Every structure is written in C-alpha cells, then in structure tokens.
Amino acid sequence: MMRSESTSALGQPSETKLTFGARGWAMIGSRQRIDPPELGAVRGKCKETRMKVVLYPFGADEPTLQLVRDFPQLQWALAASPGDIVHEIGDASILVTSNRVCSPAYGEALRRYARRSLGWIHFTSAGIDGGLAMGLPDWVTVTNSTGVKAAMVSEHALTLLLALVRRVPDMQANQRARRWRREETNAKLGTLEGATVCIIGLGSIGREVARKARAFDARVIAVSRAATAGNDVEEVFARERIGEALALADAVVICTSSEATSFHLIGAVALAAMKPGAILVNVARGNIVDGAALVAALTAGRLAGAALDVTEVEPLPPESPLWDAPNVIISPHIAGGGSTGYPQQKALFARNLARYVAGEPLVNVCRIPARA
Questions:
Q1: Could you tell me the mean pLDDT of each successive run of 10 residues in the chain, 372 residues long?
Q2: Contact predicate 15/30, CB 8 Å
Q3: CA distance 150 to 347
C-alpha cells in the first residue's frame, strides 16, 4: 500500500491511502464529504444504469482518484497504462483522464477499442493538447477542467508580474553578492498602479488575472476571439488586432489555450509591436511564444523582462539560452500548484454528470479543430 499526503489551504497534511491493483489504483479516504447540489439528483439515475467510467489518472497521488469514492453509484474501472484502456474502454460510457498521460499508444488504443457507448471524455486538466495530438474518437463530446485552478494560476501570474515590476531578481542578485544598492534598484522600480496590462485570452484564468490586476489599480485590456469588454476589462481587441493591443501594454499576460492558431502567436512581429520596456508573462502553453524571438528581444533590451511558467520544450534543456537571458524568471510549469483543486473538480464533474445523464449539453465543451 502506498500513502499520499496532500495539504490543506493552511498547509496541514491530510492522508489518503492508495493501493495498486492489477489495472490501477483503489483508494480509501477519510476526508469529509461535501456534495455539490447536482450530486444528489444524479445518484438515483446512475444507480439504475450502473454507468461505467474508466479513470486513467497521471499517478497514484492524483487527487481525482477521489472521484471513485465520491461517486460510488458509478461502475469504475481504473487504468494505469494504454493496455488497460484496451481491456476496459469497450463498454465504457465515460472516460476521465489526464492530459499528462496522453501518448500515441494511448490514442491508438482509445480509437481502436472504444465503442459508440463512449459518449463523454473528461480531461482533469485545462489543456487537452496531448489528447488532440494522440487523436480522440470523433463522435465523443470532450470537456476539460478549465476554471478549476484559475485561482492558483492567476495568483502565480500576478506573482511573476509583480516580481518583475518590483525588480525582485535584481534584489536577489544583490543579496547573493551582499550588495546594498538602494538608489540603483529604486531607479528601476515600476508599479501596476496606472499601468496597462494586456491579457491574451479571456477564459476563466484570464478573467481572474484581470480581476486581480484591477485590484492593483491597473488598466486592463485584452485580446480575445469571443469575449467582450466589461467588468474588469476596459477594452477587448480581436485576435486580428493584437498588434494594437500590444503597443498599448506595459505588461502582457498570456492565458489563451494552445491550438493551431495560437502557435507562436507571440513571435518576432508581435514582440516588435510591444511597447519598449514592456514585460511578458506566460502561464498558458510554451508554444504560444517563439522562444528564439523572445531571447532576441530580451538580449536587445527591447523588453524589460519575461516570466515563463511554460516553455516550448519541457523540461527546459540546460543549454537553452532562456536560462541566461536578461531579466527572465522561469518557474517549472507549477502555476496550478498550491491546491489540489479537487472540490472544484468534483463539483464540475457532478454538474456535467447530471447533464450527461439527462441528455443536456455539457459545460466546458472543447472545440476540436478537426471537427470545426
């Protein structure tokens, strides 16, 4: 038996026990059950049908394993490899999976052995790029978990942005060198008060970044294909007008999803359009930014700095010039950390399960490019 410790919001550990079986993990938990309103309504329906759900998590400590305990009315099959998908997916109605386990072998097993009884694939992540790359059955409705970790990711985005605005890397370098550089550092300090922050992508994370940035008295604009101005966002530019938005911004925060039209969206042309001395923050996907073009802009001194939670290649290779580029902060794809997000994940799954059983449209449905 393996043990996994997760922590509460205050950092106190709570224990969940996991056992590894022939085809996955079984879980015994002692946490308090807090059921979303939708859960009670759907339990009776599912008990009648014993709907089968295949759960393929990233690992034995994946918080979504708690779904097995919290939705006992479902018939659960736990997968730990593409081979398990071969054995279990044929009579399943729902697949719950992680973007991080996606592979060519997984995609082949899913497309070959899934039957029309499979009507819903739910990703426990906001990103589904791994799923798109491996290939998904074309008849299945696909949903993601966007919004589940919007609070944490937006906090991380603001942390990175403020660190650059307030010159934290400079202070750290001076501290390591035991230098007291008050006047020099003070001359470089900036503020979000009155600054224009441009958010690329106004999904749940982008909206949270906007709300938090407004709390620092920043002016918030955005680039979006669908959203309109209002609430915390003063003006929204269509994707085709991204250059205009970038030229106005003192800081740019990337929150958009990764798909064909966003590949290298921030490349040499976009970086040249940015206001000299602006800051770039990316908490979305690494391939949205052309890394080579970013290094060139930083080296030339056109940008004041960049903070990246994601990079084109992960892990970032030791030889990457980004490590040594001036005024760069790199965090290792951890923006969603700090909380499991499981209560939100459970509520989202309960809501969509109720809709699925009732034959109603699901929420967080993903746009699959090949089907557009």
A1: 34 37 40 44 53 95 95 97 97 97 97 97 93 95 95 97 97 96 96 98 95 98 89 96 98 92 96 98 97 97 97 96 96 93 96 97 88 50
A2: yes
A3: 15
Residue 370, token pair as written in the block:
């090949």
Kindly report the number of other CB atoms within 10 A of residue 188's CB atom.
13
The identity of residue 336, as a single letter, is: G
CATH top class, domain 150-330: alpha beta
- The CA distance from 30 to 70, in Å, is 11
Alpha helices (H) in the chain, listed in sequence order: 37-49, 66-70, 82-88, 104-113, 129-134, 150-165, 168-176, 182-188, 204-215, 242-248, 268-273, 291-299, 342-358
Secondary structure of residue 18 in the 3-state scheme? strand
d(CA 145, CA 162): 27
Q: What does the chain come to in residues? A: 372
Domain positions in the chain are: 2-148+339-367, 150-330
CATH topology for the 2-148+339-367 domain: Rossmann fold (3.40.50)
Q: Which residues are catalytic?
A: 285, 314, 333
**pTM exceeds 0.85:** no
230: left (phi over 0), alpha (psi -120 to 50) or beta: left
Using CA of residue 207, residue 208, residue 209, residue 215, what is the dihedral sign?
positive
* Domains 2-148+339-367 and 150-330 agree in fold: yes
